[in-house]
Amino acid sequence: MFKHLGGVNVVWIPYKGGGPAMSALIAGQVQLSFGTAAAVAPHTKSGRLRALAATSAQQTALLPALPVIAADLPGYESVAFYGIFAPAGTPVPLVASLNREIKGLLDGAAVKERLFNAGIEIDGGAPSSFAAAMQSDMVRVGKMVKEVGIRVDGLRPAAAPAAR
Questions:
Q1: For the domain bounded by 1-79, which CATH number is listed?
Q2: pTM of the entire predicted model
Q3: Confidence band (pLDDT; 50, 70, 90) for 95?
Q4: Which of 6, 35, 100, 158 could form a disulfide with 40 if both were Cys (CB 3.0 to 4.6 A apart)?
């Protein structure tokens, strides 16, 4: 998304998780990385990494002094969604009950503080709001994937069988 909207030439280097990516950045093997607040927080606090910008659309309480990329690159947003899911067809009253109980836990001061310190902002809303946010993000990112022609190696359609 950053490369597409910003028109910059950056190369994606796949790592097996945030830990190896952060290690490569700290070691100077790569020049920049897009990491989650939880993955980079210990390294920015220790001075091993410098945070340049937040990838959320608006300022975040996690990093209030950090500018957001979207201020200079309209339409850019890259956030991680954490959620709790149930099988399709779960009765609505059960979903509502689970949501109430989970929201009650997340609204507790100790839980909020612990998650915030781990780099996670809580937005414990209604299941419909979470579903709408996920759907909107999938449409936005899906559009960019099609425009750019991104494909994952090894997952291309099989060739049609030869005519006999």
A1: 3.40.190.10
A2: 0.72
A3: very high
A4: 35
